[in-house]
UniProtKB/TrEMBL annotation:
GO MF term list: aldehyde-lyase activity; transferase activity
Keyword DNA repair: no
Presence of the UniProt keyword Transferase in the record: yes
Name of the protein described by the UniProt record: 3-deoxy-7-phosphoheptulonate synthase
Length: 267
């Protein structure tokens, strides 16, 4: 049986529209923001900087899955309200993670895109629940998932009625321990060939090291990714989560200047 998300089932590329942003139309989209929403004043200032830098979609975690139960796990609903306020001020859509089927309704109330993180890629109850929502879903590849398993997770969402799925390659766990994960560039390129869904890259989680993020991001774009999602923080050393992989403002501006040149040459 051919999967609904496969290129054989639908040869034409799916383009997902979020407000006035199109994902999958050949013009790579830039999603950026801090790992977690840490406070209203801080996030609004970050959102304004990101808009000025050329970002098209804001990211930020309100509910954070953390390996340690003692680590900062987000502001919850308060964080969602801050994201909504940033959207109102900047006009940019926002993406944030939903971790629990019970939270799908409240997250969908405030967010423009619902993210399923790598730890929940095979949380089938959650996948079915977001499949009932009329909003795009960004599905990250699991820590040790094959491409087929990744596609089957997307199939759960599509089968529930929601065809607005964006796939995100964010690195997989291997024996390598220098980087946080191993960015599977070949897997991302294969996904672009095998599915009609948009495929983006997350070089921040893939590398875990800020000095590697920019080059991996450019490599993904050069290989045909429909976009990238990058973590940015004004003071990474003070970030409440994932500071090591976050770009500071100067690093991000340098990356965006290269991306803009890359996009202009690709037209």
């Amino acid at each position: 049986m051919e999967l609904k998300v496969s290129r054989k089932s639908k040869s034409k590329k799916t383009v997902i529209t979020v407000k006035d942003v199109k994902i999958g139309n050949g013009d790579p989209v830039i999603i950026a923001g801090p790992c977690a929403v840490e406070g209203e004043e801080e996030y609004i200032a970050e959102a304004l900087f990101l808009k000025e830098a050329g970002v098209q979609i804001l990211r930020g975690g309100a509910f954070k899955p953390r390996t340690s139960p003692y680590a900062f796990s987000g502001l919850g609903v308060e964080g969602l309200k801050i994201l909504a306020k940033a959207r109102e001020i900047t006009g940019l859509p926002v993406v944030t993670e939903v971790m629990d089927p019970r939270d799908v309704e409240i997250v969908g109330k405030y967010a423009d895109i619902l993210q399923i993180g790598s730890r929940n890629m095979q949380n089938f109850t959650l996948l079915k629940e977001v499949g009932l929502v009329d909003k795009p879903v960004l599905l990250k590849r699991g820590l040790a998932a094959t491409i087929k398993e990744w596609f089957l997770a997307a199939e759960y969402i599509v089968n529930s009625g929601n065809e607005q799925v964006i796939l995100c390659e964010r690195g997989i766990r291997t024996f390598e321990d220098y980087t946080r994960n191993t960015f599977d560039l070949a897997g991302m390129v294969a996904a672009l060939d095998l599915t009609h869904l948009p495929v983006i890259a997350d070089p921040s989680h893939a590398t875990g090291r800020s000095e590697l993020v920019g080059r991996v991001a450019l490599g993904a774009l050069a290989a045909g990714a429909d976009g990238i999602m990058v973590e940015v923080h004004p003071h990474p050393e003070e970030a409440l989560s994932d500071g090591r992989q976050s770009l500071d403002y100067e690093e991000f501006k340098k990356l965006m200047s290269v991306i803009k040149r890359f996009k202009s040459q690709s037209v």
